[in-house]
Amino acid sequence: MQEIQFTLTQTLDTNAYDTLVVPVFSKGDPISQLHTLGLEQAVKKWVTQKDFDAAAASTLLLLDNPDAGCQRLLLVGLGDPAKLTEKTYRSALKAATNKLHQTGAQQVLSVLSAVWPESRDQAWSLYQNTLFLQHGLYDYQHPSRGDFTPKETCVRQVTLFSQSPDMDDALTQAQASAYGMKMTQDLADTPANFCTPTHLADTAQKLGQQYGFEVTILEREQMIEMGMGAFMAVAQGGSTPPKMICLSYQGGDPDQRPIALVGKGVTFDTGGISLKPGQGMDEMKYDMGGAAAVLGTFEAIGRLKPNQNIVGVIPSTENMPSGTAIKPGDVVTSLSGQTIEILNTDAEGRLILCDALTYAQQTYHPEKVIDMATLTGACIIALGHEMSGIMGNDQSLVDALLAAGNHTYDRFWQLPLAEEYDAQLKSNFADMANIGGRSAGTITAGQFLARFTKEANWAHLDIAGTAWNSGENKGATGRPVAALVHYLTNASD
Ligand code: BES
Ligand code: MN
Ligand code: ZN
To answer: pLDDT for 390-413, tens place per residue?
Structure first.
């Protein structure tokens, strides 16, 4: 991905640019910046003449127009101003980005950031504009695609109009988030025969070298020795070596307890002996979406260097059926000492996470723990693909993450935790079963993890419905990196 240089301006002078992007409302409502640019009359005429209806997310590119003051003028429709929602605004941003990508625009002045939905503010608008532009240039590049050559953007420099000064943080954060999301997407889209636990570990090592994180990788023998019976039970079915990947970033006081990010890294989930049906199983390469999000967040952390201590812990393995695989009914002892009856080998995510959560707490004594995982199909039934599920035992942490999700539009919706649900995990043969029956599948998975985070301030993100898109636009989304980066860069005391 090519780095664009983003800057802010409070004055409008088109001279230094080859492209001007302006917002247009369908009723020809004047936007004061169009007046300043001397474009008000022309735009009004184009709208009344019905040459441009300014419907939300419509675009019109005018070349060498004498009114524009530069070579290209891109009109971006926002529809009826009274109906400008976050959704329409974002769809217009997406359309504008796609359009720009198809032009030879290099030096862009955008006035789109001068408007925003009523519920938002200037900082939000700048953040969203930057994220869309930087992220819109994303093209998946992997050797497995043969001679696929990604389309390079021509855009080098973008100046965003801002009504207020000192808003550079919004730009810097959005751009770093776009890079983090890109890393997450690249990792998640990479086929499972390339994207193995070893590949994730190598990626962590590279990040460590690039940004100075301390990186530690635990190997199978060590983890068996340490007593990670739950994680190792999942890993015993595959011959691909499992890894526990740990990253540590010191941005705060040396004795400040860190925030721990824990991500599920199942590089392929066949279901194990409780085998999944064949249809769509290829998408289980995305079952390392949580791990990819932790690494992507570290990419952004490396760029932004927030005043926090942050650790990442990623348990990574395949979940395979084989002669050495765990069987339904097997009982294992987790690192915490609690025993687990594995009634379904396809509920493997919580088995690897519980040991990672215990390890993270024992090793780093974190102030807060946030885990993220493509954990339950039930979460897709409950929330679809718009919002990730969130649960936790610390409401202020959950609230802060909900707020970060709202700001970035990488949103979460809270589901409850309660003793009554916890009772569904009862086992006759161990401290708990690894499944809780058909009802409330996302919550019972949360209850399972809650048993391993009792002493911590903890939140759990179920990203099963949001980490990737299926169907025609199949591909990773980079979620929930934007929300996490926003949370981490604003959580400093
Ligand atoms: N990785 C899956 C969850 C998943 C399924 C995410 C489909 C996204 C799309 C997870 O390991 C799993 O298989 N969960 C089971 C749990 C069940 C056996 C209690 C599920 O959701 O069916
Ligand atoms: Mn599974
Ligand atoms: Zn899984």
So the answer is: 999 999 999 999 999 999 999 999
- Tell me, what DSSP letter sits at residue 321? -
Tens of pLDDT, residue by residue over 210-266, are: 999 999 999 999 999 999 999 999 999 999 999 999 999 999 999 999 999 999 999
CATH of the domain at 450: 3.40.630.10
* Active site (annotated) includes residue 426: no
Based on the domain organization, do 190 and 130 belong to the same domain? no
CA 454 / ligand 2 centre spacing (Å): 24
145: number of Cβ within 10 Å: 11
Is residue 382 situated within a structural domain? yes
Catalytic: which of 90, 94, 257, 276? 276
The total domain count for the chain is 2
- DSSP bridge partners of 73: 20, 62
Domain residue limits at 24: 5-162
Same domain, 352 and 403: yes
Three-state secondary-structure class, residue 365: coil
Task: Please tell me whether the peptide bond between 480 and the residue prior to it is cis, using omega within 30 degrees of 0.
Answer: yes
422 Cβ inside 6 Å of ligand 1: no
Shortest CA distance to 93 belongs to which of 174, 147, 166, 173? 174
